[in-house]
Inverse folding.
């Protein structure tokens, strides 16, 4: 497996590794490090390779489609691993390094699995660093649509996270339906069916976990807090995750006079997330619905919230909205309007019976959406490939 980030720190990747190890496969993962470290480490039944990446080389990653340096870094790295361990398949997480999968398939005949955590060509152009002055220039020189099409057409298997994205790949890029599967970002039953720590909670708590940047809709939620303060004096907003240098929720909250209502807890190991979610009364994810990808996915956090029986507030992103309404596990709002978000909070705050019914509905349906069920198709693919 190739992972273009520091590891271990990626829940989806760790879950895939655990499932494939349980199925009897030998597996190694190549990642990078920002500091000097051992090149090879045995870890939880598999091997992690780490190669230090310099700050300059890391920045070249943004221009990966037209500057050769970053690919060269990974190509030399991967060649070193292949000389040591002649792998049968290369499983690449996310789109940028897919070119290496194509190259190794052609040169050595290894199977190439492209594991797409999002519709990358749609996501990248809305990312914060692509909307700076330099970023816009890089974006103009980077044809992600063509790269995505060419790479995925040559993969032996494409993994995507939801059925609507699968439909997009089939329609937009003409992929073979037999070579694309869906692996939703669902939670582990063994991790989320755990007893609550029963910690004392204060206030009426709204909860969000995940990245904090311009793509998450947190600004609307924070702008709703002044509208809610008088009606719900005990309201608190709990944020778990990493801030972006382009968006700091505390700065916005302070400017609106509600900094005291925020509890920013920073990054938390995903194994502790069930207990962090337990601190809340309701959870939300209301990103701007201005991307094709966001309309066709369900964020990991939605399943995680459900697994702990929390009512969920989502915006107008089609697939999440349809999902929440179908299973009656929460409310939908206009993610551009703080007043709409505030109205939904007031409705659930004033109607504990409604919140309780949504909680019950979530716990009834979640068994269908645990990882142990949704990973089966990938495990079967690798099993059948060995026959």
């Amino acid at each position: 497996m190739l992972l273009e980030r520091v590891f271990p720190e990626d829940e989806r990747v760790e879950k895939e590794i655990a499932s494939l190890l349980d199925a009897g496969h030998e597996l190694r993962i190549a990642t990078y490090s920002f500091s000097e470290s051992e090149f090879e480490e045995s870890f939880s039944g598999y091997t992690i390779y780490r190669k230090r990446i310099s700050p300059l080389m890391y920045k070249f990653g943004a221009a990966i489609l037209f500057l050769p340096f970053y690919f060269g870094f990974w190509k030399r790295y991967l060649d070193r691993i292949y000389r040591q361990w002649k792998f049968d398949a290369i499983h690449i997480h996310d789109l940028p390094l897919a070119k290496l999968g194509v190259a190794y398939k052609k040169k050595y005949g290894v199977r190439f699995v492209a594991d797409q955590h999002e519709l990358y060509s749609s996501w990248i152009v809305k990312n914060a660093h692509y909307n700076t002055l330099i970023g816009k220039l890089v974006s103009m020189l980077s044809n992600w649509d063509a790269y995505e099409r060419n790479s995925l057409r040559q993969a032996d298997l494409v993994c995507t996270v939801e059925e609507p994205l699968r439909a997009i790949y089939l329609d937009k890029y003409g992929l073979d339906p037999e070579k694309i599967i869906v692996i939703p970002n669902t939670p582990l039953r063994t991790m989320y069916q755990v007893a609550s720590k029963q910690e004392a909670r204060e206030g009426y708590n709204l909860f969000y976990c995940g990245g904090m940047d311009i793509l998450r809709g947190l600004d609307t939620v924070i702008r709703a807090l002044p509208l809610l303060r008088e009606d719900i004096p005990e309201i608190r907003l709990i944020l778990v995750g990493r801030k972006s240098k382009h968006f700091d929720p505390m700065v916005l909250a302070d400017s609106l006079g509600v900094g005291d209502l925020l509890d920013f807890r920073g990054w938390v190991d995903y194994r502790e997330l069930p207990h962090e979610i337990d601190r809340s009364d309701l959870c939300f994810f209301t990103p701007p619905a201005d991307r094709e990808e966001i309309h066709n996915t369900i964020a990991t956090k939605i399943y995680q919230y459900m697994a702990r029986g929390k009512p969920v507030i989502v915006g107008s992103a089609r697939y999440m909205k349809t999902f929440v309404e179908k299973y009656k596990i929460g409310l939908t709002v206009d993610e551009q309007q703080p007043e709409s978000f505030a109205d939904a909070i007031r409705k659930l705050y004033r109607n504990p019976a409604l919140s309780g019914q949504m909680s019950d509905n979530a716990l009834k349906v979640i068994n269908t959406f645990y990882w142990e069920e949704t990973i089966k198709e990938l495990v079967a693919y690798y099993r059948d490939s060995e026959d």
User: Anything to note?
Assistant: The chain is about 45% helix and 15% strand. The chain has a mean pLDDT of 92. The first strand starts at residue 28 and ends at 33.
